[in-house]
Amino acid sequence: MNIENSKAQLRKGILEFCVLALLKHKEAYPSELLTSLKEAQLIVVEGTLYPLLSRLKNAGLLTYRWEESKSGPPRKYYCLTEQGVTFLAELSSSWDDLKLAVEALLKDNQTKTKDSK
Amino acid sequence: MKKTIQVNLSGQVFTLDEDAYDRLSAYLNQISRLYDRSAGKEEILQDIEVRIAELFIEKLGELRQVVSLRDVDSVIEIMGRPEQFEGDFDGESEASRSSTYEENEYRARRLFRDPDDQVIGGVCSGIGYYFGIDPLWVRIAFVLALVVFGTGVLFYIILHIIVPEAKTASEKLHMRGEPVNIGSIGKSIEEELNAFGERFSNSGGAFGRSSGKKLARGIDRTFYFIAELLRKLFNVIGKFLGALFVILGTFTVIALLAALFNVADVIHFGADRWSASMDIYEWGEIVFDSSEWLIASVAGLFLLVGIPFIALAYSGLTLLFPGNRIPYLGTALFGLWFLGLVLTIFSGFSILKSFSKEETVIERYALEELGIRQDTLIIRSGSDPFNISASRGYSANRDFMIKLSDDKVTRGNLEFTIMEMPSKRAVVEICKRSEGATFDQAQSKAEAINYSFENDSNTLIFNPFFTFPSRDLLRAQELTIHLSMTEGMVVFLDESSKRIIKDIPNVTNIYDPYMTGHYWKMEKEGLICLDCEEIEKSDAQNEGIKEVSIQVNID
Fold it and tell me: Do the Cβ atoms of A4 and B89 come within 8 Å?
């Protein structure tokens, strides 16, 4: 087993969810998203984001508008569509369930380990 | 001094060093190939270019104007290699991470089916990528092959089976690679010199610099393609062979079993119209001393012949379904085969032994005693109830055997000949011959041969068949009839005698079939034809026939 591989698989699974979540309250252009995702260590290489955005947009979950930038090329501001909002809500609830389940599992396991000591 | 190139990245103008440009353009090409023919390609590329432009602006700050190779390398590091984009951290891309992506790409282009651009299975598209040609041409070639030879379909099916689909991003990259053609080879040499020269000089000296290497790689790849194709083709051929083995083996074994259980007639004796066939048991019954020996030899032969075919079918199965081996089956089969060999050898010896001795019993009949006038004698063959084709003459008659009743076997194995020189008395000798395990046996079997001939005052009619008791078994019983003639005696060989005469010596050396229908006189030096007009003519006739047959052959 390769640890990098496993980590990547974990990240990959929740990346879509996180991108949608970042766009929940405000629109953003890719560089902003990248900053947040890199801070959260969800992305290793930036190239990963673009195909993902393209996929989500093609699936009708995202849409974008162009805005001129003073300091560089024009920016693409992404935001959720109505469909995207519903999709995110569903993912959120299943994320909550998953989080609780995993935490409970880990905690349970921990106490057991302590007991056995 | 360095040459620079200006580029436009999403509306922003950048000035790049030439080496930086080459690196960047190779990188973008690679991404473009990864998403080639997928829906969002343009958009993804555009977004990535926007991001690269931003990063360049960041890197350059306000002081620098030209983007260097180092800037491009660091941007590529931030953006990541295309095979990392989709998070395909499979073993392969992991392994290739250590080498540069360019190196990886050039070395390991492989044939895949393209799932993104498929009409049927993406075979043509994959081949197009492999050789860097538009898949349309490959498709046209396949359609032409279908129209012209009809082989396109089969070839396509085979390719579809043996060529895997490109599923992960790294597989797609392997599939796409750089097209192999003269232009790209030239371009790659330049690229290589510019872009990888540094790395190569660090790691391997002149390793990457030779321009011939690129060409060699192109040739390499073509050979690799052929080799890969052949290897997979052999796999497919292996499956075909496997299926063939299974079918062949199974059918042969079934046929053998059918023969064993009397489903099919297996041995035919002689006759054309008379279906004088005997199944293997009937035949065995008149050859073998006991039913035990019969069973032993039939079983032995079956094992000896059948086991290899069972093994063949089994090996076909293992070719078809590798890995599913039945333990000890090989040993068991060999054991059975060996048993068959032993049984066959023993029953073979037993049979040989029962044919080891021979005896001949001779009955003599003087023609005077038979009441035959001795001036002109006519030799005829008796009637043939079995309608053996007369045109096949002597040999057809000789091969004939049939068991008409339980206790009697009828054989056609007899011959009539005339002694070469005149003798003092005119005599017919019936020589009955048989083989057996001992001389006594052979003699009693010879004596048991039942044969009769008829005659009137000037004609001898020889039955073309004799019989022997079934209980005597088939022990090479045969009958020879010798006619001894006195000097001056004349014999007429009737056409019907064709089926029984064999090797009648005569002074003109005329071949048996031409002797019938003529009068022959026994002189001091042997038989002479009285009415063969001219011997030369009959010779000429012979030659004429030969010539005709030669001409036919030439035609």
Answer: yes
Would you state the structure tokens that stand for residue B82, as one six-digit string? 């295309």
**Residue finishing a domain among B286, B320, B353:** B353
pTM of the model: 0.44
- Average pLDDT score, chain A: 84
B212 belongs to a structural domain: no
Q: Give contacts of A 35-94 with B, CB under 8 A.
A: 44-48, 50-51, 53-55, 57-58, 71-76
Residue A72 is nearest to which of B12, B39, B80, comparing CB atoms?
B12
Confidence of residue B547 (pLDDT cuts 50, 70, 90): very low
Task: Report whether B231 contacts B237 (CB < 8 A).
Answer: no
Beta bridge partners of B110: none
| Contact residues, chain A, for B62 at CB < 8 Å | none
Q: Which residues on A lie below 8 Å from B92 (Cβ)?
A: none
Same domain, B369 and B330: no
Q: Are strands B408-411 and B414-418 parallel, antiparallel or unpaired?
A: unpaired
Residue-number span of the structural domain to which B79 is assigned: 1-106
Nearest-CA neighbor of B4 among B67, B53, B49, B56? B67
What confidence category does residue B273 fall into, taking pLDDT thresholds of 50, 70 and 90?
very low
Cα–Cα distance, A53 to A57 (Å, whole number): 6
Percent of chain A whose pLDDT exceeds 90 = 9
